[in-house]
Design brief:
The complex is a heterodimer of chains A (54) and B (246). Chain A has helices at 2-13, 28-38. Chain A has 54 residues and is mainly alpha-helical. Chain B is 65% helix and 0% strand. In chain B, helix 1 crosses helix 2 and helix 4 runs antiparallel to helix 5 (146-160). Classes of the chains: A mainly alpha (54), B mainly alpha (246). Chain A binds chain B through residues 1-13, 15, 17-22, and chain B through 72, 75-76, 79, 83, 86-88, 90-92, 96, 167, 170-171, 173-174, 177-178, 181-182, 191-195.
């Protein structure tokens, strides 16, 4: 049954009907903030661009 | 007279759409039937031998893995709550445009009838009283004491409230997801495809899983029906029919 849980979660994570992940565990916010502070472009795919609009 | 089909009529399947169910696996059915009939024959012709063996096996499992039952039930409960309230709770157990076949009230009625049924009616009251009168062996509690009453309620709440529903939910969810959404068929081995692959599910690992599921279903149901239908036990040692409850 515990293996069934692992199998189920593994499959649910790949189901597109679940929608995008709400939380990103990696510290992208801090990294982006530092990049914005030093004026570096945020080019990584999937990261939110927090540079103020020109 | 209206010629429109009723709304509950299932949508016709496309030509390339796989069936939700699979034909009977003759190997699993044959081996499972022989094993089940062998155990039944053992019980008919050598009742004491089967009783001693099953009691020894039960005692060993409970003594060795009793902690795992509690931990696993907690894991199932946490997982079902997380799945229900996370983004995975939006996934439909069917095709994206499928509609529920039954109303919510009918589903709840079916869940209580098939999931808890007579067990909840009988042991919801009987188990706390039984454990209050005769606490678990080895607990060291005085029968009919305040501590025995507290432990009786702890066991009864664990057995008859959220945890059993979580155990049912994990098994039912995995089977419903793989059958009605993934369209892999209604064998429990199909739910293990992400771990053992489609080849493994179609081969002997999958058949071993299906046989285990058949065994657990048949003898789990038999135990449940026999216990729920047996007369109330005054104490754990007062009747030979009540020995399995310890």
């Amino acid at each position: 049954m515990l293996l069934l849980c692992v199998s189920l979660v593994k499959e649910l994570r790949e189901d597109p009907a679940a929608g995008p992940t709400r939380f990103h565990p990696a510290a992208h916010g801090l990294r982006d903030a530092v990049r914005v502070a030093v004026g570096e472009a945020l080019a990584d795919a999937g990261h939110r661009d927090r540079t103020p609009p020109v | 007279m209206s010629t429109q089909p009723p709304q509950s009529e299932p949508r016709p399947k496309g030509p390339d759409e796989p069936a939700a169910t699979l034909p009977v696996d003759r190997v699993v059915f044959g081996v499972g039937a022989v094993l089940v009939l062998a155990v039944v024959a053992w019980g008919i012709f050598a009742e004491d031998s089967l009783g001693r063996t099953s009691k020894t096996a039960l005692d060993w499992v409970l003594h060795t893995f009793g902690w795992l039952f509690v931990v696993a039930a907690d894991v199932f409960l946490a997982l079902t709550v997380l799945l229900a309230f996370s983004r995975f709770g939006r996934i439909r157990l069917g095709r994206d445009d499928d509609e529920p076949e039954f109303s919510t009230l009918a589903w709840v009625a079916m869940m209580f009838s098939a999931g808890m049924g007579i067990g909840l009616m009988f042991y919801g009251v009987g188990e706390p009283l039984q454990l209050f009168a005769a606490p678990q062996p080895g607990s060291g509690l005085e029968p009919q004491s305040a501590a025995a009453a507290q432990q009786a309620m702890e066991f009864s709440l664990f057995h008859w409230t959220l945890h059993p529903w979580a155990i049912y939910a994990v098994g039912g969810l995995a089977l419903a997801y793989t059958t009605f959404r993934k369209r892999r068929g209604n064998r429990i081995s199909s739910a293990f495809v992400p771990l053992i692959g489609q080849r493994g599910a179609d081969g002997w690992p999958g058949r071993a899983i299906d046989l285990l599921a058949v065994f657990a279903t048949v003898f789990g149901s038999a135990t449940c029906c026999s216990r729920a239908g047996s007369p109330p036990c005054r104490t754990r040692r007062s009747s030979s029919r009540c020995r399995s409850s310890s």
